[in-house]
Amino acid sequence: MPKIVKVRNTNPPDLSSTFVSHDTSNLISYEYSAQEDIRLWLRLDADLTELSGYSEPITAYEDSPSFSIENVYSNNFKAAKFSDADNSNALITYPSADNALSFGDGSSDSPFSISLWLKKVIPIGTDNIGYLFAKADTNAKREFDAYYNPASNRIFFRLWDESLSGPSSSYSFEGIYSDVSIEDSAWHHICFTYDGTGGGSASTKIKLYVDGAEISTTDSSDATGGTYVAMEKVSTKFYIGAWWDGTAEFDGFISEFAVWSKVLSLNEIKAIYYNTYDGKR
Asked: Full-prediction pTM beyond 0.70?
């Protein structure tokens, strides 16, 4: 059997092509082949470069995040550092609410996955809830979001149904949370997948992976006006590192953010994770 030698990858994985990565400790290989399903791939450099080529949204930073090349088991991950105190984040804007990141039509959902690298920074002063991302235009036009609560050390992910009748405060969402330790000044790979089941059991089909491993989740679904059916195409905006109104920013670094219109397999998630410390044959 050919020997697997540990070498440092100097660049992030190319999500637009097939690649193989290796868990060199256990001599296991993992293949990524989801390039046909990628819908958004952002390199969080100073230009906020969109690399998927699937569509041409407007990309911009709000306020002034800082940028650096970070050692994410390699030495060439470009990252943006966001801050709640500075109100810095990234905003992706599409020309209509029916766009590349629409995964529900009001009657049914479709599958999708979201992958990102992050490193939490403990701010001076109060450490508040920080959003990892949010697809929403207003508090009544939400599709999906995720946030980290430092008080409970939990990551939350929610799917929103905005079709409910009744007062403007009516809502229904399917969601999960998980206890996750990310306040260790280290980089972590986070991946959410959802198989598009829809309906009142949608939360059971949401999975969360941290550093290449699936972790247990707890249902956090809630409603004030009815049962979740599906997401609607109501949002043109997609925030990274902030909530729908550009507040509640995540305090820390984010790098290599991507969205696919499929459920990434465990092999593909591990391929992305292990590519940062690769074994080449």
From this structure: yes
